[in-house]
Amino acid sequence: ERCVSSGGTAPSGALSLQADLEVHVLSTGVSKEELIQSMDRVDREIARTELQITNLKRKQVNRNLLLELELEWELEQELELEFELEWELDLELEQELELQLERKLKQELKRELEQELELKWELKQEQELELDLEQ
């Protein structure tokens, strides 16, 4: 849109801009070149500001992504801790079940031994009785 400064033919939208420039030049006493330079400075400042806005938006997106990653990491840590606690609880339960089974087996073995001893004692009693009867 700055065709006016190059001296080329201006497109239709630039014609009204050129007319506005000439009116401004006549009313303020500022030269056309100074006005164009001033407008170029404003355009550069706008571009710089837009770039800063874009960079700030990128930084915000990056911060949001980082925050999301941190939250995911914290969630993973909590899940790992929960898993470890469940695993430890399962292990404790398994150990308790093994202890209960071991106690039952020992009781059963003890009962069997007592029965065996009782049978041996009865057998011995019978043998002694037979010996006594034979004599």
TrEMBL record:
Q: Which UniProt keywords apply?
A: Coiled coil
Coiled coil among keywords: yes
Looking up Pfam families in the UniProt record yields: GPS2_interact
Say yes or no: keyword Iron present.
Answer: no
Q: Which domain of life is it from?
A: Eukaryota
Q: Where is the N-CoR GPS2-interacting domain?
A: 10-61
Q: Which residues form a coiled coil?
A: 32-59, 91-126
* UniProt protein name: N-CoR GPS2-interacting domain-containing protein
Which organism is this entry from?
A: Scyliorhinus torazame
